[in-house]
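Entry for the shared binder. Reason: the reviewer on the internal report wants the predicted structure included alongside the sequence.
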Amino acid sequence: MPDDVFASFVDFQEPLTDGSLISIFPDIADPTGQITAVDSHHVGLEPGYYLISYKVSVLFEQANYMQVTPFYNGVPHIERGIYFATAVDGSTACGAGFLILRAPAATQFSLTFSSSGTATEGEVNLTILKLRRPL
């Protein structure tokens, strides 16, 4: 049985604004090259199936909401996103998402942040595991 293929990405203390891509930086690299950091916002995935886990938390100075939307295979996937609303000033918003991504061709994965205001202390953890299932 071949070794597992996986990688993880992180960021912390990131200010996030409406419509921005969330920054992610390599934490544990995939030596096989099937999961790669394309730039500070995108992860490249070779064809296959992937289990993706992500968690995002932020701090809002005023009542607000946070929507995080994954983007892959050329389109946003709001049905796989997370949403959190705060009702008081100085609140933390957080959420986690899990999905199985089918990449019939090489694709890029990213996370987009939406909100009615700016968030501070943004933190993200992204873990990607390539599944042993042929396309």
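Summary line for the report: The chain has a mean pLDDT of 95.
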